[in-house]
Amino acid sequence: MRELPSNQLDPRIKNVWRINDAIWIAVVFLCCFVPFGIATLVEPEPWLLMVLAGIAIAFAVLLILFVVVLPPIRYMRWRYELSPEYLDIARGIVWRKRFIIPFIRVQNTDTKQGPIMRAFGLSSVTVSTAAGAHEIPGLDVAAADELRDRAAELARLAREDV
């Protein structure tokens, strides 16, 4: 079996993942908790209080899991490597995925930043093929621009060789 790719993401991506996950968990919590909270205020019943307690416990467990436990593990498992022939991406905690993207198949390369990534000075690179797009999140802005430009150049060279 081939060795894992050598490049890791920028460590600041762990904080971006924490913030993104915390926001989504809080939104889902509010969408679940508020209706039962209103129902409890209108007509207090014991089973409604138990549902509220269950939602609050689930919120706390998910918050600890997604903010404390998973980001370091996810960071360790994310790897990528750019060679003259292909882009190699390895990721995943439970379901590990490995993508080998030959540059002859690459159609487009992009970079993108959301507001949270921009606040941390990070960017993502997306490499698109006919089969789909593959994203490398959490690279320093300069490194992302360099990776995007190098991948585009290698794709152009691969098409010229055919």
From TrEMBL:
The chain crosses the membrane at residues 21-41, 47-70. Residues 75-150 form the YdbS-like PH domain. Coiled coil: none annotated. It holds the Pfam family bPH_2. Keywords: Membrane, Transmembrane, Transmembrane helix. Signal peptide: none annotated. InterPro entries: YdbS-like_PH. This is PH domain-containing protein. It comes from Adlercreutzia faecimuris.
